[in-house]
């Protein structure tokens, strides 16, 4: 689980990619959701083995798994946006005029 923090993009980042603002909020919400579910179902910290099929504990574990996957995808997207911005910056610097 990540530490709960809202890492907002800087104004130049938002000018280039305004979608980063709601994605940062979504990322923080996923972290808060994981923390709340782990507080409610502390036993799933070590797995959901033995949980009855369809139980809230089993579903909470699934939510945490999917939230972590989405968090990974969001981080990869932010990295791709940063890479694209650096690439564009280098391209503009190389223009002869």
Distance between the termini: 48 Å
Secondary structure tally, helices? 3
Number of domains: 1
> Could you say which overall geometry the principal axes of the C-alpha atoms support?
elongated
Structural class: mainly alpha
Describe this structure in words.
By secondary structure, the chain is mainly α. The chain has one domain. The protein is built from three helices and no strands. α2 runs antiparallel to α3. The longest helix is centred in the C-terminal third of the chain and has 38 residues. The protein is elongated and about 70 Å long. The chain starts with 10 loop residues before the first helix and ends with a helix. The relative contact order is 0.13. The model has no long low-confidence stretch (mean pLDDT 88).
Q: What's the layout of helices and strands?
A:
Layout: H1 11-16, H2 20-40, H3 56-93
Keywords:
97 residues, mainly alpha, elongated
Can you describe this structure in just a few lines?
By secondary structure, the chain is mainly alpha-helical. 67% of the residues lie in helices and 0% in strands. It starts with 10 loop residues before the first helix and ends with a helix.
């Amino acid at each position: 689980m990540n530490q709960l923090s809202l890492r907002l993009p800087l104004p130049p980042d938002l000018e280039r990619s305004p979608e980063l603002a709601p994605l940062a909020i979504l990322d923080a919400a996923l972290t808060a959701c994981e923390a709340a579910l782990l507080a409610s179902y502390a036993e799933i910290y070590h797995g959901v083995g033995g949980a009855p099929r369809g139980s809230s504990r089993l579903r909470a574990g699934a939510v945490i798994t999917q939230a972590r996957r989405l968090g990974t995808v969001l981080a990869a997207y932010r990295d791709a946006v940063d890479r694209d911005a650096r690439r564009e910056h280098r391209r503009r610097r190389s223009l002869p005029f």
